[in-house]
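Progress against Task 2.4 (sequence-to-structure conversion) is shown through the following example record, which the project officer requested during the mid-term review.
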Amino acid sequence: MSKKALYLLGIAITIILGAYLYLKFCCNCSEKITTDDTPKAAVPTVQEPNFVPFVLNGPGIEYQTNDNLKFLKNSATLIMPVSDSVINGIQKLKSFLVSNPKQKIVITGYATSDETNSTTFENLGLARANEVKNYFVSEGLSEKQFSTKGEIIDKWKMSADTLLGPSNYTFETIDSTSTSTDEWTALKDKINADPLVLHFNTNQSRETLTSLEKQKVADIVKYTENVKDAVVLAVGHSDNVGNRDSNIVLGQKRAEFSKNYLSKNGIDPARIETQSKGPDEPIGDNNTSEGKASNRRTVITIK
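Structure tokens generated for the chain above:
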């Protein structure tokens, strides 16, 4: 074979080999680069709003504003003043409830699990719900159209140490046939069979309740909310230290203290009757310190 032919053959082999290597390696690299560089769709960032709206949403009423009722952390007292937009919503609710006397609203109050409950309510959420109800009533709304409950949750929207609107409003229709008279009779019997008894030190009162006593208060509140003519009876008692007349007065003071205490927990004071038995109905031996302590009490029942 001539040198010229060998030269041409070499060129041909080089071209074929180059084409093969290009197809094998360069094209694959190109594919990989194209695949890796495919632009990814950007995930939009949803910014959480810095408010919790005040919402009233029921059959025949719809109102919302970005402002709301507020509570300090660990507190069951509403922060005042309330904004005009919330007051406007409350006034709309007032008109709605006047026009719909069978409408009932359940106020659910919330508290976080890391908050401290220093109230006499079963939990801080219930205390807040009752505070909201009392504020609504102070604005002219009917107490009979509200009931309350409380829930403890892990967290709630806050601004610094302020909880924003930790309450919810559920609209329910009052149905007089849905709850039988027997149910309320049973609740009254339960309250009176094991009444709430508040004990006092000599010439002193107390506001700290056990969880069982708080539950008894909740039962009394529930009964009075659902039985419109219910009357709560608070009877004060004393030991026999001192003369009878002064002990009658002391028993009455204890009954009045208990009335004030119950009114703070959601019971209309006009529906609480007070009496004093003084030293006349002891349940303990007045010859012992333990017996005297058990006699210094107020017994609260449904009349």
